[in-house]
C-alpha cells in the first residue's frame, strides 16, 4: 500500500517507519521542513498528487503537562489546524482510509477509570491540557463525521495512552514524565546528588506504553483496518504511580538516592488508565515491560548525550 505518514520525524513516527511492517509498504513521510501541515493549500496539493491508499496522522504539537499549561492556545490551534487540514485534504483527494492518532487527554476529567470509549465527549476536559484535548476530540469527531457522510471513506482514530521511548523529548521544558525522570536521575547519578525531586506527592497514576509497541499497534490497525472500530483505545490496560516510575528508573539507571516531593508542581489527572477491551477484541496487545522500555530509552538517551543532542 502507498502510506502517507505525518510526523515521521517524531518519536512515534520514527518507530512506525523503523517497524518491520513498514518495509511491506511504500511509506511517504515528509517532515515539517518539507511540508508544514498548518498550510492547508500545500496539504491539499500533496495529497491530491500523491493519492495514497491510507494516511497515518501522527504529527502534532506534543508536550508534557508543563508545556501544555504554558501554551494552551498553540496546542489547540496547531493541532486543530494540522488535523483538520490532513483530514479535509484526504477527503478532497478521495483517500480511502485515514488512521488518526488521538490521545487519552480526550477523556473528560472526571470520567470513570478505566476510561471507556463511550465516555468520550461526556464532560469537561482536564484543565492542564484542555487545548490539546479539545483539538484531539475535534479531529477525531471530524474523522467520524466524514466516514458517516461518505460510504467510500473510512477515517478512524486510535486513542493512545501516554507514550515514551527512543527519540522522545528530553528537554525539561517539554518533557513528559518518563524522559524527565531519566534525565533527572541520570544527572543525579553523574553529579553524585543524593536527592531527586518529584512533581506533586507522586500518588497520581499514569499508563506509559513504549513507543515501539504503539508502532506495532498502528501497523496491526493498518493491516486489520476493516475490522478496526471507528475509535479505539490503545494501551497497556494497567498503570503505575508516579512514585513507582521514579523508583523503577532509579533501579535501571543504578542510582541509590532518595526522592523529595514538590507539592507546588502541577499533577494533572489523578489517573488516566485506558479500558483496553476493544483492543483485546481486535486482537492486539503490547509486549514491552516498563523495566525493558526504560532500559532501551536510557541507552538511547546516553547516546544522545554523547552526540551532544540532549
Ligand atoms: N507522546 C505521548 O505521550 C503521546 C502522543 N500522542 C500522539 O501521538 C502522535 C505522535 O506523538 P510524538 O511522536 O510523541 O510527538 P513528537 O513531538 O515526537 O512528534 C511530532 C511530530 O509532528 C511534527 N509536526 C509538528 N508540527 C508540524 C507542522 N506544523 N507541520 C508538519 N509536521 C509537524 C513534528 O515534525 P518535526 O520533527 O519535523 O518538527 C514531529 O515529527 C501525536 O499525534 C500525539 O498527539 C498520543 C498520546 C500520547
Ligand atoms: C498523554 C497525554 O498526557 C499528558 O498529560 P500528563 O500525563 O499529565 O503529562 P506528563 O507526562 O507531563 O505528567 C504526568 C504526571 O507526572 C508528574 N510528574 C512528576 N515529575 C514530573 C516531571 O519532572 N516532569 C513531568 N512532565 N511530569 C512529572 C506530573 O505531575 C503528572 O502528574 C499531556 O501533556 C499530553 O501530552 C498527552 O497527550
Automatic annotation (TrEMBL):
Sorted UniProt keywords: Isomerase, Multifunctional enzyme, NADP, Oxidoreductase
Residues that bind substrate: 184, 199, 206
Keyword Isomerase: yes
Highest taxon in the source lineage: Bacteria
InterPro entries in alphabetical order: Epimerase_deHydtase, GDP_fucose/colitose_synth, NAD(P)-bd_dom_sf
Positions bearing the site annotation: Important for catalytic activity: 103, 105
Binding-site residues for NADP(+), renumbered to this chain: 7-13, 101-104, 136, 160-163, 176
Pfam family, one: Epimerase
Residues of the NAD-dependent epimerase/dehydratase domain: 3-235
Entry's EC annotation: 1.1.1.271
Pathway: Nucleotide-sugar biosynthesis; GDP-L-fucose biosynthesis via de novo pathway; GDP-L-fucose from GDP-alpha-D-mannose: step 2/2
Ribosomal protein in keyword set: no
Annotated active site: 132 (proton donor/acceptor)
Catalytic activity, as annotated: GDP-beta-L-fucose + NADP(+) = GDP-4-dehydro-alpha-D-rhamnose + NADPH + H(+)
Protein family: Belongs to the NAD(P)-dependent epimerase/dehydratase family. Fucose synthase subfamily.
Function: Catalyzes the two-step NADP-dependent conversion of GDP-4-dehydro-6-deoxy-D-mannose to GDP-fucose, involving an epimerase and a reductase reaction.
Name of the featured protein: GDP-L-fucose synthase
Organism: Roseovarius rhodophyticola
Gene behind this protein: fcl
Amino acid at each position: 500500500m502507498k502510506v502517507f505518514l505525518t510526523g515521521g520525524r517524531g518519536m512515534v513516527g520514527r518507530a512506525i517507519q523503523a517497524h518491520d511492517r513498514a518495509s511491506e509498504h511504500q511509506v511517504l513521510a515528509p517532515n515539517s521542513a518539507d511540508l508544514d501541515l498548518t498550510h492547508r493549500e500545500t496539504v491539499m496539493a500533496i495529497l491530491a498528487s500523491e493519492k495514497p491508499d491510507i494516511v497515518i496522522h501522527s504529527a502534532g504539537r506534543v508536550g508534557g503537562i508543563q508545556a501544555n499549561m504554558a501554551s494552551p492556545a498553540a496546542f489547540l490551534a496547531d493541532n486543530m489546524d494540522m488535523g483538520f487540514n490532513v483530514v479535509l485534504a484526504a477527503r478532497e483527494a478521495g483517500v480511502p482510509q485515514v488512521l488518526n492518532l488521538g490521545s487519552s487527554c480526550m477523556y473528560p476529567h472526571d470520567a470513570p477509570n478505566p476510561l471507556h470509549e463511550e465516555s468520550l465527549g461526556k464532560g469537561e476536559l482536564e484543565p492542564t491540557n484542555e487545548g490539546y484535548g479539545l483539538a484531539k476530540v475535534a479531529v477525531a469527531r471530524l474523522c467520524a463525521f466524514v466516514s458517516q457522510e461518505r460510504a467510500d471513506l473510512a477515517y478512524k482514530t486510535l486513542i493512545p495512552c501516554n507514550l515514551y521511548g527512543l527519540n522522545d523529548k528530553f528537554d525539561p521544558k517539554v518533557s513528559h514524565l518518563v524522559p524527565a525522570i531519566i534525565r533527572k536521575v541520570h544527572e543525579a547519578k553523574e553529579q553524585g546528588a543524593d536527592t531527586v525531586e518529584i512533581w506533586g506527592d507522586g500518588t497520581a497514576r499514569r499508563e506509559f506504553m513504549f513507543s515501539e509497541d504503539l508502532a506495532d499497534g498502528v501497523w496491526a490497525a493498518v493491516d486489520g483496518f476493516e475490522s478496526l472500530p471507528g475509535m479505539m483505545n490503545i494501551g497497556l490496560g494497567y498503570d503505575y504511580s508516579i512514585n513507582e516510575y521514579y523508583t523503577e528508573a532509579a533501579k535501571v539507571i543504578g542510582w541509590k538516592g532518595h526522592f523529595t516531593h514538590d507539592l507546588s508542581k502541577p499533577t494533572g489527572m489523578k489517573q488516566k488508565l485506558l479500558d483496553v477491551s476493544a483492543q483485546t477484541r481486535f486482537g492486539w496487545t503490547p509486549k514491552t515491560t516498563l523495566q525493558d522500555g526504560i532500559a532501551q530509552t536510557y541507552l538511547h538517551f546516553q547516546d544522545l548525550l554523547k552526540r551532544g543532542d540532549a
